[in-house]
Predict the structure.
Amino acid sequence: MRKLLFIFCFLLCANAFSQILSSSVEKKTIALGEVNHMVVTINNIGSEKVSAAPENELLPFHFEEVKDSIAQTQDVYYRRIDFAVFDEGKFTIPELEFKVGGKVLKTIPYEIEVINTAQKTDQINDIMNNKEVKLEVTDYWQLYKFYILAAIALIALIIAIVMFVKYGRKSKDSPVVATNQTLKELDSLKKKKYVETGDYRSFYVELIDISRKFIAKQYRLPADVLLTDDLVDLMKKNNTISQENEKVVEDVFVRGDLVKFAKTFPDQQTMEKDFADIRNFVKRSSKDLEFENLRKDV
């Protein structure tokens, strides 16, 4: 009997001075994003150090800790964790370990169900009424200036492309451009003073070369590859070049061929006349083309 009484007293004293861990969760079912809290209390710690997971790291994934507060006195350790869950389903808070001195205490696991309380028929209301703001012209400009500038740039680009396609290529191939370009080349030839120095061979080589390129570009005849006789025959059959201009081309080209092969030696007056005749031929070429266009229209 005395032994039983002794054992009972020993157990009573042991329980009176041992650490006691208790835990609780406010709600087992919560709505999405609703804040819930869990409380852990350890009594009779006797100034022992309590070790656990750091603040805001106690609960596992899915549990978003809002607030984690810890308080400890000489005998009591108190910890409250406010948390929320933002996924639907059932989630478990596992056993949480707390080490008091050399002893490990564990909480019981908790299953938390998270539900979506919103219904499709629920009406969503604004937190506050919309406020009307009167916009000035400058406000609209700030809002839409990038779109306006982009539209203007796009329109300008389209106009530039149309203008280039419609006029750019034509202008480069127009009779006036070809005429002016050839007249500049003839002026450059004259500045070389082949006539004054009597260098008749260089003079006729360059004069005929300029003329051939001009005929090929202006009249669309292969003057740059044909021999003189073949070119003259083609001009007469083509009827694009007037008889006056044909005569000039034939005379100058034949004389140029004779000069190349040293069969004739023209004087300064002849060279000046041939130069002037070719220059006038270039100027008159536009009339040949006008007449050809009228003939095609008829």
Observations:
- The mean pLDDT is 83.
- Residues 137-173 form the longest helix (37 residues).
- DSSP finds eight helices and ten strands in the chain.
- Helices lie at 2-17, 137-173, 175-191, 194-197, 200-218, 228-238, 243-260, 268-297.
